[in-house]
Amino acid sequence: MAKTLPSVDVVTVGVGWTGGIVAAECAKAGLKVVGLERGQKRGTEDYLNVHDEYRYAIRYDLMQNLSKETVSFRNDRNMKALPMRQLGSFLLGEGLGGSSTHWNGMTFRFLPYDFQIKTLTDKRYGPNKLGPDYLIQDWGLTYDQLEPYMDKFEKTAGISGDDKNTFSGKRSNPYPTGPMKKTPMLTQFEKAAKNLKLTPYMVPSANLSEVYKNPDGETINACQYCGFCERFGCEYGAKSSAEVTVVPTALKTGNFDLRYNSNVVEILKQGNKATGVRYIDTVSGEEFIQPANAVVLTSYVFNNAKLLMVSNIGERYDPTTGKGTLGRNYCYQILPGAAGFFDEQYNTFMGAGSLGVCLDDYNGDNFDHSDLDFIHGGNLALTQTGARPIGSNPTPPDTPTWGPEFKKQSIYYYTRSFGIGAQGASMPHKENYLSLDPTYKDAYGLPLVQLTYNFTDQDRALHKYISARAADIMKEMGAKTIVPNAEIKDYNIVPYQTTHNTGGTVMSLTPEQGVVNNYLQHWDVDNLFAVSAGNFAHNSGYNPTGTLGALAYRCAEGVIKYSQSGGSLV
Length: 570
Prior knowledge:
The protein is an alpha/beta fold. It has helices at about 15-30, 55-60, 110-115, 115-125, 145-155, 185-195, 245-250, 300-310, 405-415, 455-475, 545-565; strands spanning about 5, 10-15, 35, 70-75, 80-85, 200, 210-215, 220, 255-260, 260-270, 275-280, 285-295, 335-340, 355-360, 380-385, 415-425, 435-440, 445-450, 480-485, 530. Strands 1, 2, 3, 9, 10, 11, 12 and 20 form an 8-stranded mixed sheet that branches. A 6-stranded antiparallel sheet has the order 6-14-15-16-13-19. Keywords: FAD, Flavoprotein, Oxidoreductase.
């Protein structure tokens, strides 16, 4: 029988960026907060010997244990969905800090176009640009409304940048710290882009260019360019993450109780109010009920949607009728680009997760789509993240796959090749969605999230176009061999592609369009909030974390307002 604990003002489900931000802001406001993290405690002190590529990058030591919790996948409704048994297409974080521990740190703001994509696309191209099967919608917030929260997140994380993006929305302040170092290969990309009349700028980075103290008094150290960011924790405390910023801030207030190994399995509800959550201690197996005046779902995209589904809160999306919003608008991200092989040698083994030069000339609606079969685009970038030896083995296309010539080419091109890549925007389609699997369950008896997803004609057209633009820049850089990314056909759950999953718990202007309002407050249960990239109505041409951090601050403001006055906030 579950043990009922004393009630608190706020309980968060997950303690990564979103959970940490909500906890810190609410605790600073005097609210009593409990943070339930199903993973373990970890921090900078645990990463002193982190440069173990096999342990962290190949065997995914910081990631979710799929023997306990995974997703099932199929391309369409006629296929049988099967569980993802090994981490493949995306990497799900677990433990204090969540994905913020092992992210690369690229911290963009979505474009003003993104937040009003339906209105602005229809205005420029007419209402039938993509057709009725694409579920394009405005977000319920404009860029200008969200900008103060974006600014706050950047100040908390100390983001390093150069303010040279001519396509960005208006900024209220410059980046808190200056840009990272510009290496020879990045300078070469910048020069080539300018020769093509494009507008390059340094990637905004959470790997800090200098030691920085944020407004809450937390110190983030300077990046050492070791090349071990993505899939790794930072042993220098130089990569902004929840456990070096907002979590310490929350703990210092004395109003935050952080509990590890606490897996939430149900949102408890009476009438139209959430009363708390039920969770299981994953070590002892004990079951607890944590009552709370406000429940905030701050876990990953899939788990936020799953908890709402298994708790029977909201109407699940039905692709046959088009009714329901929970699980709708799932989007991934498309990865066009081109590889280049050079005779010139570069120190590709050095770098940082966000060290790069990029451009937005082919992102959003920054170029004319009138004669193109897609909308939006992607941020094109050359990044120097550190070519680690196990995972990096580039060879030209005509190289044998084994033998002396393979070895020779592998060694030669290890420091003489790199790729220009884009994060292509993904538009919601009526056949791409999240649901509950009718067959497979997790270790606690709950149905797995079932992912139904495939690339669409929009995706394929965008990928082909942007890959050609990447090849143009690579040619201008002087590569002797250029290999554009192969055209995409059907999506597969392997190999790794990106962890930028979005949608399923969409934010909207009206209850008919989404799951939560623009304070991330549930439309049906006013003391329940859900914040993750699941709130995105589509996926942009950027990394999601900068925009997600802003939404987390917006959500925290909503929780505090609710604690003062109650009721719907919009």
